[in-house]
Design goal:
Number of helices: 7
CATH class: Alpha Beta
Bound molecules: S-adenosylmethionine
Helix content: 25-40%
Shape: globular
Largest sheet: 7 strands, mixed
Radius of gyration: 16 Å
Strand content: 15-25%
Order of helices and strands: HHEHEHEEHEHHEE
Number of domains: 1
Strand order of the largest sheet: 3-2-1-4-5-7-6
Length: about 200
Amino acid sequence: MRNATDIFNEWALSGKDKGMEKNHEAAVKEMLSYLIRGQEDPFSFIDAGCGNGWVVRKMKDHPLCEKAIGVDGAEDMIRKANANDAVGNYFYSDLLEWAPEEKVDFIHSMEVLYYFKNPSELINHMKLNWLKPGGKMIMGVDFYQEHERSHTWPTDLGTHMTLLSEKNWVSLFNDHGFSHIENFRANVQNDFPGTLVISGVLDSI
Ligand SMILES: C[S@@+](CC[C@H](N)C(=O)[O-])C[C@H]1O[C@@H](n2cnc3c(N)ncnc32)[C@H](O)[C@@H]1O
């Protein structure tokens, strides 16, 4: 089993990041519009596991977005992000070892959390060190228990993936004290049960 970040580094070098962007685009569009619905004040945003930075660049175009940051543990993904957006905020780091200088209003993450052996630890780290009180976090995964065809992916790709059910993912958000937890499927198609999306709000103290 290899590190996921080594695999995605190769994807960046071979140009496969563009295909991934295309594959994720429809679900991410739904996630982002859900994340910022009703938003009237300026906001800050982090994409956790940003790949080549395409979601950060998309968010930066939003008139209320004051700051958008991307973090990824594949160096060549971050190199690409910087090449595409020289004035952007992109950080090369393992997500568990990084924190922003200032906490943000929104965290988004697409197809990243299951690469961690303990996703609960990452959710806790982001809750404690990344998110403002009152902030909202949204995550999407295509690898989950109810998506049976995804179960071969760890073998196919040769890396660790943590397989959880929809109920398990919701419980993680509950365990860490998020409120207004909602779960839905984005980009559902005939042969695809959709991206499993979970969102929650960190209550102000
Ligand atoms: C399937 S890709 C998704 C990329 C991006 N979210 C997108 O939708 O295009 C997963 C990303 O998570 C990153 N990643 C995986 N494990 C990581 C870790 N421990 N720390 C930081 N990034 C990680 C990989 O480098 C890769 O870019």
